[in-house]
C-alpha cells in the first residue's frame, strides 16, 4: 500500500464495556482484548508497518481496584510469556515504555528479559506501553536533562524519552469511542494523525485495522507547509 505509516500506536480501549454488553465481568473483556492484541501485533508486522506501540496500561490505570489490576497482570503474564518466542521467531524485537518499577517484580523481570533477548537486526519493533504516562515521561526527561546540567534541543530531549531511537507515531488509533489521548505519547504525538473508532477493542479485527490504515493513507500531511 502507498503511504503506509512507519509507526502506529493503538489506545486499546473498550474492554470493560465489551464485557458489560455480554453481562460478563470486566476481566472477560480484558482476556478478549489480550487475544486481539497478540493477533494484531502479528498482523501489523505482515502489513509492513515497522513500529507498533500498544497502550496496555496507563499510569492512571494503576489506581483501578486491586482485583482488576491483579487480573490484568495475570493475563499479561500469561499472554506475554506464551507469545514472546513466536514474536522473536518472526524477527520482531520488543521494547517497553513506561515506569516498570511500580509493577509486580516477576513482570518487571519478564519485561526486561523480553527486551534484552530480542533478536538483533529485527525488522519490526513491538512497543508495549505499560504503566506509561506521557507527562511522567516528559518530567523524567526534564529531570535527566537537569542532572546533566545541559540545555537540550529537540533532538537531545527526544533522546531522554522512553522512546529514544523510535520514530514519532504517524498514526494513533483509539478504539472504544472516546475522543482523547489519555496521556498516550504526549510529546511524540505532536504531528500524529488521529483515528477514532467506536469499535470496542475486542471487536477491533484485522479488517478494522486495515480500515484505519487505509484512512490514514489518503490523508495529506502538510506539517505546516502549503
Ligand atoms: C482498556 O479497556 C484496557 C485498559 C485500560 C487496561 P477499559 O478497561 O478501559 O475498558 P472500558 O473503557 O471500561 O470499556
Ligand atoms: C486509556 O484507556 C488507557 C489504555 C487503553 C491502556 P482508559 O480507559 O484508561 O482512558 P480514560 O480513563 O477513558 O481516559
Ligand atoms: Mg477505558
Tell me what the structure shows.
With 226 residues, this protein is α/β, with parallel strands linked by helices. The chain has one domain: 3-Layer(aba) Sandwich (Undecaprenyl pyrophosphate synthetase), CATH 3.40.1180. The chain contains seven helices and six strands; from the N terminus they run βααβαβαβααββα. It has a six-stranded parallel beta sheet. The model has no long low-confidence stretch (mean pLDDT 97).
Give a short synopsis of this structure.
This protein has 226 residues and is α/β, with parallel strands linked by helices. Helices cover 43% and strands 13% of the residues.
Placed side by side, the strands forming the largest sheet appear as 3-4-2-1-5-6
* Distance from first to last alpha carbon: 25 Å
Q: How is the CATH topology named?
A: Undecaprenyl pyrophosphate synthetase
Give the low-confidence spans.
Answer: none
Compute the number of structural domains.
1
Largest sheet: 6 strands, parallel
What is the number of helical segments per DSSP (H or I, 4+ residues)?
Answer: 7
Amino acid at each position: 500500500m502507498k503511504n503506509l505509516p512507519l509507526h502506529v500506536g493503538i489506545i486499546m480501549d473498550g474492554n470493560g464495556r465489551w464485557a458489560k454488553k455480554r453481562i460478563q465481568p470486566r476481566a472477560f473483556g480484558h482476556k478478549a482484548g489480550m487475544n486481539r492484541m497478540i493477533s494484531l501485533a502479528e498482523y501489523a508486522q505482515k502489513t509492513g508497518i515497522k513500529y507498533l506501540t500498544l497502550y496496555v496500561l496507563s499510569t492512571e490505570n494503576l489506581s483501578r481496584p486491586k482485583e482488576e489490576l491483579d487480573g490484568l497482570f495475570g493475563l499479561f503474564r500469561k499472554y506475554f510469556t506464551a507469545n514472546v518466542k513466536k514474536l522473536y521467531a518472526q524477527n520482531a524485537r520488543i521494547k517497553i515504555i513506561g515506569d516498570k518499577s511500580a509493577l509486580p517484580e516477576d513482570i518487571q523481570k519478564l519485561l526486561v528479559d523480553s527486551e534484552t533477548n530480542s533478536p538483533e537486526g529485527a525488522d519490526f519493533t513491538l512497543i508495549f506501553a505499560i504503566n506509561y504516562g506521557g507527562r511522567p515521561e516528559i518530567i523524567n526527561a526534564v529531570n535527566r536533562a537537569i542532572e546533566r546540567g545541559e540545555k537540550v534541543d529537540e533532538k537531545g530531549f527526544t533522546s531522554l524519552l522512553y522512546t529514544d531511537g523510535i520514530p514519532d507515531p504517524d498514526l494513533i488509533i483509539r478504539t472504544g469511542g472516546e475522543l482523547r489521548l489519555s496521556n498516550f505519547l504526549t510529546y511524540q504525538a505532536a504531528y500524529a494523525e488521529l483515528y477514532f473508532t467506536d469499535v470496542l477493542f475486542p471487536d477491533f479485527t484485522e479488517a478494522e485495522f486495515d480500515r484505519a490504515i487505509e484512512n490514514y493513507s489518503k490523508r495529506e500531511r502538510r506539517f505546516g507547509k502549503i
